[in-house]
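Exercise 7. Predict the joint structure of the components listed below.
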Amino acid sequence: MWSHASAEALKLSLRVSIAATLLMALIGIPVAFWLARRRSLLSRIVECLVSLPLVIPPVVTGHLLLVVLSPNRFLGRRLDRLGLRFALDWKGAVTAAAVVAFPIFLVIARTAFQRCDSRLEDAARVLNSSRARVLFTITIPIALPGLLAAAAVAFARAFGEFGATMMLAGNIPGQTRTIPQAIYSELLAGREGSAWSLTSVSIAVGVAAMAASQMLIRRDSRQIGVAPNA
Amino acid sequence: MNSTRTKILLVLPGLAFVMAIALIPRGGARQPGRVQETTVLAAASLNDVMQPLGDKFGRRSGIGVRLDFASSGLLRKKIEIGARADVFLSASPEEVDSLQGGGHVVPATRRAFLRNSLVCVLPRPLGSPIARPADLLHPAVRRVAIGDPAHVPAGLHAKQALTHFGLLDALEGKLVPCADARAALVQAEMETVDAALVYLTDAMVSSKVRIAFSFPEESYAPITYEASILRTAHDIQAAQAFLGFITSAEAQPVYARHGFLPVSGFAR
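Solution:
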């Protein structure tokens, strides 16, 4: 029950979720660090806004993205002139997956930074280390297992993104038909066997991601010598 | 961390849950002594024409009409897995054939009642004129929306027409399969595609697109709408009354106004 179309959907899903995870890490690591260290009204507002996709229906997220990025709207038209197309394009699939999975990345990454004792950073600063040196030799190495766990879980969420992707990127075979869209299409076409094999791939990816994140967080807790839920 | 905050975080979901339970309406939707009602599953392309007809029928007969629109293929699937409905209005006889094979429709109630035709619409003028099917090959046409041929009859007809003109292979990478016939029109309205192959009746609904050309009738299999009553219908009489009304002479001007063609004198 493994067809060419299924293989194509798997490859596309991997490509889209890897790109989305890199995008989330690029934006999410600095934002998570800022949220962990500076609590202000602004940081609370930012956190609330970027976390919204976790609690609103993905279809709504997708519609809002489409409204902003559609080629007949202000921003979309300008991006289109630059050759950047998001609607009905794989870049749209990456954007939708990244926006929906971002709150998950952010909350785990922020916790990772919060668990890293800022007194260690202060000590290094007192000993005359530069801010950048402290960040790269103290903060990031300590937070690394947590950041990797964030990436693993966010990757899995991006891998399973359906609603927002459907709205923004559509369901084009070979271009935006990722595994969830392929499952939907196969079921509608009455090919249940093929839908089941794709379903098992989705479950396997989810289980692997959760297992990886649990392992990383457990090892992390042992390293700093605190209980996982302290 | 902060224990007060932890407590609040635990209490809030609990409160939300209790409120959700309290808000569930009691006794279900159907109360004894309520007015008659018929549930109609209809092809997405019938959206604009069935709303006024349903209202008119409701006012006249006192029977409420509940309409649910989706692609005919998706509706077939819903019926197969046990959706409770009374009437199925399909944009393709094949879906009804398949349901009849599974014993889901009452065969004697099946009737073809409408026809439609296929056109190409554009959301905005393109650099080069699009006046015939081969013009879709032009590089200015980057995306063409169609119904998903796997379950949307309009998409199947679009694919047939493109095959007829030998364009399918060349256009394959440009085609955007959509959830139903109407969704293909919406993509054109939002300008996410440069062209869409849709039913004439859908094209007529929109003021945001214009018709570039019509596909000749011989380039695709006839587009015929079929009505039937489902085996699971809870009120056969209401369903029959509704079917009688939408196939009556009285309904014909409404269809004509929306661009649908009558089925009479049409050999299938």
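Discussion. Residues 3-23 of chain B form the longest helix (21 residues).
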